[in-house]
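Two records follow; treat each independently.
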Amino acid sequence: MIQSKEDYIYYLEADRLSLGKTEKTPPFFGDEIWKFERLLRKIEYYKNCKTGFFSNVYLFFLKWKFHNLSVKLGYHIDSNVCGPGLALHWHLVGIHGAAKIGANCLIQSGVNIGTKAGESSFVPKIGDNVYIGPGAKIFGDITIADGIAIGANAVVNKSFLEPGISIGGIPAKKISDKGSEGLVIKGTELADALL
């Protein structure tokens, strides 16, 4: 969670590197996903670190802008949910506001991370360096260990505590010992080396 200006800068840099960007800022036209992630981090910074009338007015403006971009991209992602090094792919990603996602997670299109029906307080906790394939559904009071790769269209409704494995299927089960190595860019490690 962003708790200072230094955290804010670190999250921006880790996200940029996880997205594989070489430029320091997004281009004026295009690259809405990167702009979305930067706006998410700015909201987290203002929400967690800034107080006062003008900061609150600016935060309201940022949230309005964020809502519009979320609708355009098909995202539903709340602030203070995703760790540094987030890499999103285009369209239809929904993450419950109480879920916790670790560092360097790559989330493909069509992913839904939420709760079982009627259990709004039981949400997933996802570790670091996790790859989540297109169309995966992850729900319930479960834990996903570090370095796991979740296959396309998997339905994950139980915990997987063994790190560095691949899971897939409906319902999900262990399918290999490969894990997410080579699938995610570890933006936090790259940012640590640069900052």
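The next record belongs to a different protein.
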Amino acid sequence: MAYYKYIPRKRFASLHSGLIRFTQPGAFNDPFEMPAFKAEEAEAVRRAGLAGLMGQTGAIMRGLMAGRIPEAASIPPILYWTGQVGAPAPRRPDPVPSEEAIERIRRIDETFGILSLAGSADNLLLWVHYADEHRGLAVEIDVEDPAFTPSSGGGERFQLAAPVRYVGERPRIPETNEILFEHFFVKSPEWAYEREFRIVRRLASAAETIAAKPYPVHLFPLPPSAIRQVIFGARVTAETRHRLIARARSEPLFRHVGFAQVTLDPRQFRVEIGE
């Protein structure tokens, strides 16, 4: 089955050299991607709860020293964690993750990377957002190509692959050592237009790692056999298009790759893909 990777033209060189990036969840443009936002959110809840409890303790001590039982003594401590008293909670009442759980979530950015692919090559928003405003490319990748897909298993050959589900409810953070991989495949319904398919791998199995901040760049092998087609954006010049095609067809491993060009429909807000 084929999916598409929208990229700026400058990244074609990386694909041509047989490498593709798997990105840490925290480096994605959506702050709701786990783990970065979730860890910060959980830490905010924890701090708000502690501040409420400290305030309650101080009120109780002052009341007792004055010879009376203060009203604060009758408030269940859990109400401070849920924001029903004191400062409002940053999210709805849910069990608050422990510091250990928060730290495990942060470590996911050091362990796993995600390759995000789209379900179509004619999405107007994806061309603008990810393919340099039609100056880039959409590369058709066969995710079932045997040379690209490692067998399921642990260690360096670990891989999970599935379509993204678009739902309104965010998965909860587990309080165990278990990694809840559901987080990797759930997004808000606002993103449904992408029809995204994701592949998750361990960053330790990357073929190449480039130092960068805030996240290193991890590149994984992309065999030429997994590349089926390269589609040029509407703003790619004929000179650039001919140069890249000639370069690819000069090498035997890429002679099977097809090439196409996006054109703008003159009557509707849509694109046509043709030779």
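Discussion point: Residues 36-104 form one domain. How would you locate this feature using only the token line?
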